[in-house]
Specification:
Order of helices and strands: EEEEEEEEEEEEEEEEEEE
Number of strands: 19
Strand order of the largest sheet: 2-4-6-8-10-12-14-16-18-19
Distance between the termini: 71 Å
Helix content: under 10%
Structural class: mainly beta
Protein name: Receptor L-domain domain-containing protein
Number of helices: 0
Largest sheet: 10 strands, parallel
Biased composition (Pro residues): 238-250
Region (Disordered): 231-250
Keywords: Cell wall, Glycoprotein, Secreted, Signal
Radius of gyration: 20 Å
Subcellular location: Secreted, Cell wall
């Protein structure tokens, strides 16, 4: 990519897609600003994002997906602003999100999913605000949500599901407001909802289901009102069981 090393700004989108021989992105080192999307997609031999070290701003979406050999995002540590969505998905060898540390706000949604070796969300520590929804799912080795500790507001729904090794929701402790649905489901090893203690507002539904080792609802104590429906079902036998609704008849 040496012939591109004079480019300093991209007004639209930068797509790196379907390049079977690239192992790094050296040659794009001069770019500091992307006005549209930055998409790194389906580059089967890419192991590092070296070459993107100069980027500070992504005007719309940042998407990194289906890069089978990618092990690190460290070269993205200059990015401070993502105007649209942040999506990190289907990167089979990625173990950490270190490199995203500089991002403080995401204007759209955050998707972290199907990263088979991801064990921690460390690297998202700088985030305070998610404008859209936050979805963490199908990360089979993820054991903790630490790294999300700085987030206080999720503008739309918050969904944590199908994380087979996740035992706790600690890391969500700073969140006070969920603008849509709060959903926790299909987490096979989850034993507690502690970590949701700070939430005082849920504007959509509250759904806690199919968590076979969850035995109590401690962690929901601070929620006075749910804007939509409440669904609590198919968890372990709760101790004590939730009270029946006012119009429930035996």
């Amino acid at each position: 990519m040496g012939s591109l090393d004079g480019i300093t700004a991209v007004g639209g989108d930068l797509w790196i897609d379907g390049n079977d021989q690239f192992t790094t992105l050296t040659g794009l080192d001069g770019i500091t600003t992307i006005g549209g999307d930055l998409t790194i997609w389906n580059n089967t031999q890419l192991t590092t994002l070296t070459g993107l070290d100069g980027i500070t701003t992504v005007g719309d979406d940042l998407r990194i997906s289906y890069n089978d050999q990618l092990t690190t995002l460290a070269a993205l540590d200059g990015i401070t602003t993502v105007g649209g969505d942040l999506s990190i998905s289907d990167n089979a060898q990625l173990t950490t999100l270190t490199g995203l540390d500089g991002i403080t706000a995401v204007g759209g949604d955050i998707w972290i999913n199907n990263n088979d070796q991801l064990t921690t969300l460390t690297g998202l520590d700088g985030l305070t605000t998610v404008g859209g929804f936050l979805a963490i799912y199908d990360n089979t080795e993820l054991t903790t949500l630490r790294g999300l500790d700085g987030i206080t507001t999720v503008g739309d729904f918050l969904s944590i599901y199908d994380n087979a090794q996740l035992t706790t929701l600690r890391g969500l402790d700073g969140i006070t407001t969920v603008g849509g649905i709060l959903g926790i489901w299909d987490n096979a090893e989850l034993t507690t909802l502690r970590g949701l203690d700070g939430i005082t507002t849920v504007e959509g539904n509250l759904a806690i289901y199919d968590n076979p080792r969850l035995t109590d609802l401690a962690g929901l104590d601070s929620i006075p009102t749910v804007g939509g429906n409440v669904q609590i079902e198919d968890n372990a036998p709760l101790t004590p069981p939730p009270p029946p609704p006012p119009n429930f008849f035996f």
